[in-house]
Amino acid sequence: MVIKTEKIADYELGLLYRDRAFQKVLEPGVYRMLRGQGQIEVVKLDLRAPLVKAPELQALYLTHPQVVQTYFLVADMGDGELGVVYANGKLAGLVAPRSVAFYGKLLRPVSLEVIDAATEIALPERLVAPLARLAAQDLVSKSLVAIAEVVSDHVGLLYVDGVLQSRLTPGRYAFVKALRKIQVVTFDLRLQTLEVTGQEVLTKDRIGLRANITAVYRVADPLKAVALTADLKDFLYKELQFALRQVVGTRTLEELLGDKLGINQAIANLLLPKLGEAGLEVSSVGVKDVILPGDVRELMNRVIEAEKTAQANVIKRREETAATRSLLNTAKLMEDNPILLRLKELEALEKVSEKVGNVVVGNGMDGVLEDLVRIRPRKT
User: How far apart are CA 40 and CA 356, in angstroms?
Assistant: First the structure.
């Protein structure tokens, strides 16, 4: 007769089978069994982790459910139920609908909360943070719940099975996705900038040029935005293109270069109604740069140079005329005033003396003062 000894640790349970038939559960301790009374097998279950995964345990639940429920919390979920299991008061795991899980209750207190996954979409706020940590570590939990975060200055739109359900304010949310598809689309409500660069356009007088246009906008109504277009930036980009071409194509190059503010206002008048229908609010829009082809730019430079030369000639003639008129007025004053004439002669004498080294006169000082410089001949 042979005695078989089995030792069950403090963190284990044993399942005793004799000739493949279940006999009883072995709690922690030392057991001695006679081998001659049939084939003996002991399956040891490790209880250190709350969730116990063992095929023998699942089979035992089918044949001896009361025995399993004595030592384990059995989370047997229905078609529309989601199980939330707590161990020591902390979230320990999730149990999917139409599945069974076993949590050992020999080493710790465990409890089960059943959520109606068929009707409830959003999970309680108290579960959001624990579920976020659990989903980051457990792939099974990640497949059962969706964690969504809407940051400040953003808004979220919740879609359930492709249908828009609600608008989400900034915060963190947890949704049941075991029985449905969950999607959260976020929109930035702050001001954003979109530039359309290098657009080739033709003016009314058939001159080709390249232009850059910039728009500063914000999403004012996300519901309108998603209802009208699937790609908001692509929609705005194309509308900017169309508005630029329409405005530039109805103006000549001279009008385009001479009235930039009017061009910007015309573009804004075309865009604002369409973008308002798409839920966008545009704070400013305008042409940033206008780039002319090389030959047109050279021609414009020659035109500008000719205009500036003509303006300079006009100014020069105007100044010459003013100077001549001033000389005429001075001459009339000297003609009527001998003293003024004499002062002018002395002024001329001073200028002459600055440039002449030696002066020879034959009439003494009177000759220097009266005969050297004479503006008008003396009367005889």
Answer: 143
The answer to whether the beta carbons of residues 186 and 158 sit under 8 Å apart is no
Catalogue the E-assigned strands of 238-371: 280-291
Question: Which DSSP state fits 368?
Answer: I
Domains in the chain, CATH or no CATH each: 192-292 (3.30.479.30), 337-380 (no CATH)
Q: What per-residue confidence (pLDDT) applies to 39? A: 84
Task: Give the Cα separation of 205 and 194 in Å (integer).
Answer: 29
Distance CA 210, CA 159 (A): 42
Residue 314: the pLDDT is 83
SS3 content of the chain, % helix, strand, coil (to 5): 40, 35, 25
* Cα(45)–Cα(102) distance, integer angstroms: 11
Residue 233 main-chain phi, psi, to 5 deg: -70, -40
Entry pTM: 0.66
246: which 2 tokens? 């329409």
Give the number of residues written for the chain.
380
pLDDT of residue 301: 60
Helix 232-249 and helix 260-277: axis angle, to 10°?
140
Name the residue among 174, 182, 75, 77 with its Cα closest to residue 130.
174
| Token code pair at residue 249 | 């194509």
CB 39 within 8 A of CB 19: yes
Q: What is the DSSP string of 107-155?
A: SS-EEEEEEETTT--BPPGGGHHHHHHHHHH-HHHHHHEEEEEE-TTEE
Give the residue ranges of the chain where pLDDT is below 50.
380
